Amino acid sequence: MTDGWHWQQPGNGRPQGQPVPSHVPTSPPPAGPAPAGSAPGSPWWSDALGDPWRDPHAPAAVVLQPGPTGVAQPEPVVDPDAPRPPGNNRSVLLVAVVSALLAGLLGGSLGYAFAARSGIGGGTALGGNGASPPAAANRPPDSLAGVAGRLLPSVVTVRVASSNGSSIGSGFVVSTDGYVITNDHVVEGGGTQTFTAAFSDGSTASGKLVGQDPESDIAVIKLARDGLTPVEFGDSDAIAVGDPVLAIGSPLALSNTVTAGIVSAVDRTIQAGDPGGTVRYYAAIQTDAAVNQGNSGGPLVDAGGRVIGVNAVIKSVSADEQSAGNIGLAFAIPINQAKRVAQDIIDTGKARRTVIGAKVTNGRTTGSGVRLDTVESGGPAESAGLRAGDVVTRIDRHPLEEATDLIALVRKYAPGSVVTVEYRRGTATQTASVTLAADAQ
Question: Which family does it belong to (predicted)?
């Protein structure tokens, strides 16, 4: 092998050790003057037929025609150190400079053209050539993104500041003139309070507290803004376990957060509240959507974008409320109950509490059911034929295990609702239709 620059002819014109092909004559070349351009020791020898690398279909040799005198004139050798005429140097230099400029311009133009065609440079496009996904605003209305986009303008971050400190929660607009539903525990605190609601577009509006109901954990704020977009209400009595839901709010002050899950259970009775404070009862919607502190007061939304609950409570493995976090057990107040309480607050400044007209205490029964300790004279229970000592086992087919179940389920219904009560008196099981009433307070 040779690099093409330092190859030298061996003595016989072939690489050493290379056998002579049968078609190549082995006799020396005929005597006579060497072809023009060849010289003793020159790599350009005339025995072309002896070249083992020659193309057999190529001419046998390249013969240079002799000059007029019959003698090949060797190419003059120029001494690089010899002085040259000034004029010739300037011409050569000018040609070299012009050639370099032209070559640079041509090379730059070609390089730019190839780079632009290949996507290299400032206009580089990464990734495939597939069609771009549609913008979020163009998602199908019934998709999760479509539902979230439709609801976010109606959900607010509620900030409460008072002399006792500050708190943050969530809420949602329920009228064009600025009424907002949130949780009572978001706005509680006492003292002089200021309320501010922040919208998904970054705008804010001041508000004032219209009223609150600690036992149902519902409060209403009126914002100083008109022309708002209210949410659409769903029917919390029509949902089923497994229905997809979205929770929207400001967990840990992260505004405009949307999480997804399903309805994990319905009519999950919850007793909540701080020790020594107000005790709250819910026949709640349970969901596994991620809900954390700050989600309180925000909406739980079904797949059609209708609000079915108010996020209110979470269960946590931590006993410390400040370090409690989502473990997939969150509870929302059914919207049918929350809407009714909010309407009472807007109309009258306070909410009506639904009662059955009896008192109960835990730990007074054997087996399932809740024992009635006392029955109010003239109240709903007595009017339906119930007496103290009766054990209520079901309300509208919902089984009862403890006193919390009876209280929470009764408060789920509006005053005036008629419910079917199954109860046990001695060994006999009976039923009664009870018309629930509003508390006298």
Answer: Belongs to the peptidase S1C family.
